[in-house]
Amino acid sequence: MHHSMVDHNPFISKGYTVYDAESVLDRFTEAGIDLVLTGHVHVQDISERTKLRGTFRDIATNALSVYPHQYGKIVVSTRKRLFSYQTIPVDVEVWAHENKIKDTRLTGFRSYSDLFFRDRSAFMVGRMLSLGAVQIPRDRATAMTELFGTLNARFFAGNAFLNASDTVQTGTYRELVSTDYGFLSLYAQSIVEDPSPENNRLEIDF
């Protein structure tokens, strides 16, 4: 499917999750459908809902055009009665080497893509801060845009759980959640509090 069946983030739902999702979920589970792959949010995230007939899972797959440029591989074993899913990054650097390409954006694609993604996050956050009611000094704004670069990169890669190890302990994050920066404060908290610790791998017995 394109649109999500289950919300993957409280602030990325309207226009991203199927309209009247509860009714559709009931129809799906009645028909024995308990898993879908979706893509509209572009993040790598696995969300689930408990229904009367069992657990329904929605795997939002990372877009190839978006950092970290990975795709999902599905293996169904009828012998083991096991469904497995895992993400695999596209290895642009190996492709560039095999094709004798010298463009450093491709030979060092992982670093280039990571920096590009963080720069775009910083640009959008910086713009929102400049338009906000709360004006902050440049050095604090810079620290905040860098923090969002890390939060967003991990969120899109399906590694939001890593944020608990460092970002939440910084003064920048504490300021962000203790001061009302509107959407930015709420969005940052939603990433850190992402309920799913594993978004890049899933195994289901059937």
Give a description of the structure.
There is one protein chain. The protein has 206 residues and is of the alpha+beta class. It has two domains: 21-90 and 199-205, no CATH class; 94-192, no CATH class. 40% of the residues lie in helices and 19% in strands. It has seven helices and six strands, in the order H-E-E-E-E-E-H-H-H-H-H-H-E. It has helices spanning 21-30, 92-98, 104-107, 109-131, 138-157, 171-178, 183-192, and strands at residues 35-38, 45-51, 54-60, 70-77, 82-89, 201-205. The protein has a three-stranded mixed sheet with strand order 1-3-2. It has a three-stranded antiparallel sheet with strand order 4-5-6, with no helix packed on it. Strand 4 (70-77) and strand 5 (82-89) form a beta hairpin. Helix 6 packs across helix 7. The longest helix has 23 residues, at 109-131. The protein is globular, with a radius of gyration of 19 Å. The protein starts with 20 loop residues before the first helix and ends with a strand.
Describe the secondary structure blueprint for this structure:
Blueprint (H helix, E strand, L loop, with lengths): L20 H10 L4 E4 L6 E7 L2 E7 L9 E8 L4 E8 L2 H7 L5 H4 L1 H23 L6 H20 L13 H8 L4 H10 L8 E5 L1
Parallel strand pairs: 1-3
Antiparallel strand pairs: 2-3, 4-5, 5-6
Helix pairs in contact: 4-5, 6-7
Structural features:
three-stranded antiparallel sheet, 7 helices, 206 residues, alpha+beta, 40% helix, 2 domains, three-stranded mixed sheet
Main beta sheet strand tally, sense and closure: 3 strands, mixed
The separation of the N and C termini measures 21 Å
Structural class: alpha+beta
Proportion of residues in β-strands: 15-25%
* Average of per-residue pLDDT values: 90
Write down the domain tally: 2
